[in-house]
Protein 1
Amino acid sequence: MSANKGASVVVIGGGVTGLSTAFWLAEAGVDVLVLERGIVGWEASGRNGGGCSHHHSPLFAEEQRLWPMMDQLLGYPTEFVPNRIRIALSPDQYTLYGRAVVNARKQGFHADELDPQQVRDLVPLAGDNVFAGHYYHFGGHANPHRTVQAYAWAIRDRGGRVKQHVTVTGFQRAGDRVTAVETDQGSFGCDHLVIAAGPQTSRLAALLEVDIPMRAARAEMIVTEPLPLMPLGGIDGNGLYGRQTLRGNLAYGGGPHEWVETEDLPGGPRPSTPLSGSIAKRLAQLLPKAAHARVIRSWGGIIENTPDGRPVLDRPAPWANLTAGSLSGVGFGLSPASGRALAQLVTDGACDFADLSSLRLDRFSQLEPNWAELQGWLPGGLATV
Amino acid sequence: MTIDPRSVTGKRLEIAHHIQVLVIGAGPAGISAARRAHQGGADVMLVDENPVPFDVMGESVPQIWGGRMGGQVRNRNAMTERMLEARPDLVELFELGVDVRLGTACWGLFSNQPNLGWMPGLVAGLIDDEQGSYHVRADQIIVATGRRDMGLAFPGWDLPGVLGASAAATLAGLYGAFDGKRAVILGSGPEALLAAQDLMAAGVQITAVVEQAASPLAPQLAAGLQAHGVEIICGQAPRGVNSDAGGVTGLILRDRQIDCDSVLLGVGAVPMIDLLQAAGARCGFDNDRSGFVPTLDKGLQTTLAGIRAAGDCAGIWAAKSADPALARSEGEAAANAALAAIGLSKHAPADLATPPHAPDMGRYRKDWVRATVVEALAEMPVCQCEEVTAREILEVRPPRYLKMPPVANETRSLTQILGDGPPDPDQVKRLTRAGMGPCQGRRCREQIQALLALQEDLALGAVPLAGYRSPVRPMTLTAATAPEDPAIAEIWDSWFGMPRQWVPFWDVEPKYTVAALATEKEHVSE
């Protein structure tokens, strides 16, 4: 079983964060191997709203810089389309959404206020119930399925490898170094290890005595049949995130989540629930002229969350050759930037384009041990009837 | 215990009815199950989506109706009456006081399992014309959703007049509304030829049976049809159709044409497992049961406690297709097991008929796809909704709306393109969009399975099942809007509503503690 060819850098996790990290490493000429227990982008990376507008993050500026060039960089389509409109149906929603604009403007990005008629002119499916809106001259949306596969193909085009259907079982170590990844298909030697395995990140890091606090939850989205394309597909609001795809489908999510146990053996069911009806209701309010569009599927995704909901991008002590990345439930849009940051952490030990200090693991050094219970993040709690 | 206010914990799921036994599907298995459960003392609801709304039929849901629904299908009341005439044992259930709901589709089943713990019990999402979507809770659920037909692409198969063999039998037998007079049937297995018999009994002329193999799969049935003037044509596959504004007027074979107004797809009868698989019940490929079927125990229980399957959705084989008594026995056995589970009776599990070892159904379906789809002389969509051809599927091409030049992948094999392991139809679906349209993959799913198997030289069953997702019946946003606990509206947030997640990075504390949340920070709900 030792015949496996290891790599200079082994990345555990073929989700969007791991794939982007491996892409940037391969782009820099590093020999990289991605190990994925299922197929690439199968989990939350392929089940999300495709939004690319994360004004709160230190990676925001780089996210905005990179997205317009991703198709060309990767050599495959991501379906990225720039700009976004956010629709408020009430004064409260407008106040809430206005804060995003303040954050973005502070970082040098532009947004316009829209009156109801301007919203209706720009969003043909909107209705008489619009209170106001914002037009973001930044952000946008992309197709998660196509993007994860584009990363995977781009890695291969640069000599990197992506192995699907491999389950990690443990690690080999020597002193302060991880020397190999053990899997159900033998071991793979490495000079550096990246763990970017979504909800599995915490469990895998624990095998190396690194504590990355996180809990997993299920969130859901619905998809309608295709409708005529609106001028801009990145339409949010009324408590929903989502987009009109370039094919014309409306793909939207929002609403309550459910805390679940992280699987020891990944690959369990990803059920959706009757919450789809609540999302449908709000989508029909957001875009009343689409009320007769038919829902044709729903998704459920399992998402990891750190205690504050913010990413961890770090080189955890005491290991000399370990990098860990969790985007904490908001990973897709940031992936071009987060992967580049993680790749730099691997090769240089630091990121030269963003201040990652707020994403370090040691911000949890004073965290209460029972934090999950204190925040109500434990599974359980059946519906009352 | 602290509760995360933005989570589902403590939120109520609005339940319209709580019954003991819900039976889905009013065919032979479902009717027998409902009758037995009622006789055993249970409070029973039986739902059946027939008569299916006309606009839903137009999307080839749940059958490939192929535009051959007669105009009377628009009259729902007349269709309901016709259905009751066709199924007198259904009338008997009404008279016994069973809550029978026709024109009511089940679009989802929900059961607590890993990654889902919020359901108050077994929950079914139902929908009808009057109420839209609503939820019922049941202690036991028996799924008896029957079968549908495997799609098979050839030039012109997207025209009105190309429909499933069992769809035609349903239109003619149950609805009395088959808008066809002269039909050719593709496939010579028992299910196809039994459907041909039923159609002839309903007054439809079956001109010919076309089979790509050298001889009919069910020779005795074929000889019987032949004796009634049906031509049996072997070693041939459709090359196209003649048509006019009303659809198909003839079927084109290699060296001849046959006048007909309908071409019936009879190359594969497929167990209708959509609800079960979407609910999370384990399904596996079983050659002798005609494809992917739920894994069942002796009480016909799936891997989800309390959810059972009976009739064609649990497996299709020749003897079962020929004699509805087998499906009825399964329905009764499932009902007995359900009664036992809720403490109403103590029946030992019955010994049910099991299928004999069948010929290689996977090879047969692959042969049809090779002879018809792969060897087609013109390009045609395999996925009609998204207009994806076989070539586009096998080359994993980005969809046409992207107007992309061909990418480097064209020279690679499918396995190389997709990574290690067998080609996964769900991955192909995400990349090509094949199977992503309003018919929810009903017309293309089995063909794509066969195409991938042919391309990679695999047994049909080695290609994984393309997953189903609820709602397994398309429904409008308006109709999908179900009654909702007001508490859900109060806490609604587009994402998790965490107090620090969207605070700008320059404004977060250097150390995060739960205690620090006592200081509120203005943040942006995403």
Protein 2
Amino acid sequence: MLHRRDFIATSLAAAALAPLAPTLWSRGALAQAGPPAKNLLIFYAPNGTVHHRLRPTGTPQSFTVADNSILKPLDTPRGNWRPFDDVSFLDELDLATRAGNHEGGQAAMLTGDGGAADPGGGRSLDQFLAQTLFADARFPSLVLGVQTSAWGAQQQTRISYESAGVFTAVEDDPRAVFRRLFGDLVGGDVDKVRRRRQSVIDLVKSRVDDAKRRVGAEEKRKLDQHLTALRTMELRLAPIDLGTCDQPTAPTTNAPNDNDSFPFVADAQRELAVLSLACGLSRVAVLQHSHTVSPVAFSWLGVADQHHSLSHADNGNTVGLDAFIACEQWYMDRYVDVLEDLRSRPSPHGGGTLLDDTVCVYVKELGDSRLHDQVSVPFYVAGGGVRGGRWIKCGGQKHNRLLVSIARQLGSDVEAYGTGGGELTELA
Amino acid sequence: MNRMAFAIAALSTTFALSACETDPPKQGEGDDPVVCADDAAVYDRVIHDAILQSTCIRCHVGGGLADGSRLVLEASLGSALEDGDALAARNLAVVQALAQETVLDGLSLIVAKPLGLHPDGHGGGVVVEDGTSQARRLRWYADRINGVVDECAVPAEFDSGGVCDEPVLARRLVRLSKDEYASSVAVVFGAVAGARAREIARGFPADVVVENFEDRGRLAVGELLGEKLATAAEDLAGVVVDDAAILNAAAGCSALDRDCAMQFIQRAGRRALRRPITGEERDALVAVYDGVIVDGDGHREGLRWVVTALLQLPGFLYKEELGRSAGDVFALTDWEVAAALSFIFTGAPPDDALLDAIAAGTFATDRAALVTRLREDPRTTAQAQRFFAAWLDFDAVVRTPHDAATFPELTPQMLGALRAEAEANVGDAVRRGASLRDLLLQERTQIGADLATFYGLPAPGADGAVDLAGSGYVGLLSMGAFTAGHALPTESSPIRRGVAVRARLLCDPLPPPPPNINAAPPPTDPSASTRDRFSLHSSEPECRSCHERIDGIGFALEAFDGAGRRRNRDNGRELDLQGTAVDVDGETAEIEDVGGLARLLAGSEQVGACYVDSWARFGAGVDPETLGCTLAAPAMTADVLDAPTSLVGLFSHRHSEVDGEPDGYAPAADAVLDPVDPVDPVEPGSGAVVVFARETNRWNTGACFAGDVENGSDTDVVWSSDLPVEGTVNNHWNSVIEDLGNGRVRFTGAEWNASLPPGSHADVFGFCVEF
């Protein structure tokens, strides 16, 4: 069976491999070629898990994955690649959260439960890294959703925070994402249009500045957010540089908010997220599937009940439980899709594959879905220099440590995130 | 409970408890402790009624989920069994003791726990967000108990006593909602552009929602929306300038020259900004136009970029509620009041006629006339439909997945028809002048033949209505938009329906279930009815404290299946439609079937109060919880669909922010709201005479204006006009002036120019002001 390393060795120059030797989180690599990871991709799917249908059989040293385990797609080879070889399954990691339940877990998951005064400033990890490390990227971050917005933007439906208590907007329509990413000016006098857009932005900025003089602190914050938006828009007036990427074709997904469109939207958003990293347009991408208390019915699997209802099926309800596991396996398969896409593309930053450059982490907001708790919340980490093939028991450590480790892997020097600190040494 | 009457001191920052008025506290004088307020009264007013009684008590009660915690409250005060005062005293003692206990940096337990700041967190349920009114109440109360603040000076904010009489709210900018964006484009550029804007705005990112309504105060322009607004503006500019009819209608002229462009900017600017465009704004837009002309791209292209800019101006995107300094507070301007009320009543900004009337000072002293005018606007119907759709969540029926195998008849078309039924009935109610009570109890509905067949009802008559008498369907709650919207994919859900009634009609949202509770819906049992399965499930002691508030209401709706159709049996079992509705208007009532529930709600003061509070959040972006007073709820029986009239008082005054005067605030900046030749050219023979002031010069402390007169009549007229003037007139010529107060000055011609012939007359008079 071929290993991921084998794949790279056969497709890329061996010289490029040297600094990416099997011991990862390697400081040596960091010293030579910047941080081990260049990009972050966060994959989210809601409503917790059922541990006895999740965990492998055996010990972390020697384990197998049962057919009815949520992990099965990780253990199912795709061609000569076994996804689990690239993935570390982090078990027994608790979410740091004060409030608990769906909402508390959702809010704490990427913020480390921090407020404005804590490390990270109440921002979710994606926004923190986008703002502190990748502000010069064309899209410092992209937050792409699959049916996340029918309930509006609120604690239950948002996982990304651009500042404490302020949600990052989510784009649920792949067609709109495509237009944002690749829909540059077509025809006409391009420079002239840019100049005029610039003059409009200048005008609007000056009026927002003027409005700021007339309001108090609270509204000033609102207008500052507007000014930040205008400045970002200004940067994007520059022509798109697609690097080695070809202009891709636009997605055609219609009715992205219809329940039955869910799998198609998920596919399209994944492709766009991966493209954005592959073409060097973005450094941080979030793929948010639905939201906590998810109402999605996996009709394409023949499942009629809604995901959240199923997530509460107790052990006596075998039909409901099996249906929930089928949904969870489907999500895991989508995570594997992301990894497969990432490893099939070269990195725009030189060297190996996009997966070698990208930390791809799968996050959830709850541990046991039936109990609404934040104990043993499963996380999965792959790529970006993280060694795979592991089932890591974290012994009840708080998830802040994982957030710190990911941030450091991408070149941040944070030592704490949210309400806790230290690295997750087990990941090294 | 001790219901002492407190006067609201709306404009002061504190109010005195009544004992203080006769015996003012003398701090530091003598050794006597300062006793100025009844502890129980302060406790009741500041935290019991506003937080403990409304939120905490659902779990922190004997038999509740937090029964084992140190905060266990007495729920029923003043029951027949035990003396209410004794129970209230027990609550007070418990809370006082907890308030005195501190953790961490001296943080009181009654702050640390509910705000989730305690090292052990809050066991579950609801965490109070810091910075909210509830958090401020808890913090202040803890400080009072611990002697940190003057125990007599209860902030006026916490007086939850009387009816709101023009409360003083914060100065703010309220970003347009998606709907308001579209309706604004329609008012500025006409219906075609408005329709396109509505389509575009659907793609704007989801806005912040709190308990069913957009949180208006928090709507902002982030990166994604900013980009989309820019794209939308370019798109809409194309719609406007590529169609000569639309362009000329907006401009009021058709010449391809700079004068017509100027007129376009004035007219469209006033509509877009809901006030006269300022000289600065006008000049900036003209500069955009001129830039395109210099490039040689012509008039239309110039206007394309003017429109693009106009639709991104903060004055367009944010409704201004800033006011002008008037002593201790800021008085909202006529323009601001009219715009705010117009959006509440009609969902749209003022049109030209209303703007003209404002400019003419028609409503300066007569708010009632403005309200009368807005109530008569036909767009109030659509606005009521939008409100009800948000309040009762008409979209739920379309959004909730329905299992195609169980309910094959629930096609997308059918779901759309169910939503449309609810909307049509609201529209019908508005047109009939029906009340909320009528809507809940009416034995008629507006449906098409397909839906009539679906429901098993006779076909509608010529008026589109079906008589429901004797059918078992009664009012809004029996419509599929509600019953199938709040259902599970394969069956009815008494829980979802009960929660929807509680959260939406009674404004009593329930806390999420705490961790470590098995909240699984009962598995399907072929031999049991839905009611039986859910009853068993909710009888668990830890579930009961919330579910007793939900289930009894939901069970009364069990005659409707998961698709919203009336049924006689459920899973072969007889239906049991009896329910106990707990804590509606503070009472427990036995109800049966949708009719019993509807009658209970239709007679409930709580529903009436919830209705107007919900309107306040929907229309005014004001959360009544932060008001510290109660909005007058219209009677359930009379004209109640017109809740907006109850909100008029919210648009009077504003206070500066808690951190003091806004930075850099200067009267000169305020003066940018001065009108600059705001009106349309007057056609000869139209009979209209219009007077306007054109700014000719401006400096930091003053400005000068030239007055122009358009005589659109066929004969000489004696002109006179009341103009809004910022600052004080310190010089004037060719005119006689009379100060009318409220920032208005009447200008009349001098002897030699009092009468003017038909036509346009520039520089007829002039004046200067100092700020």
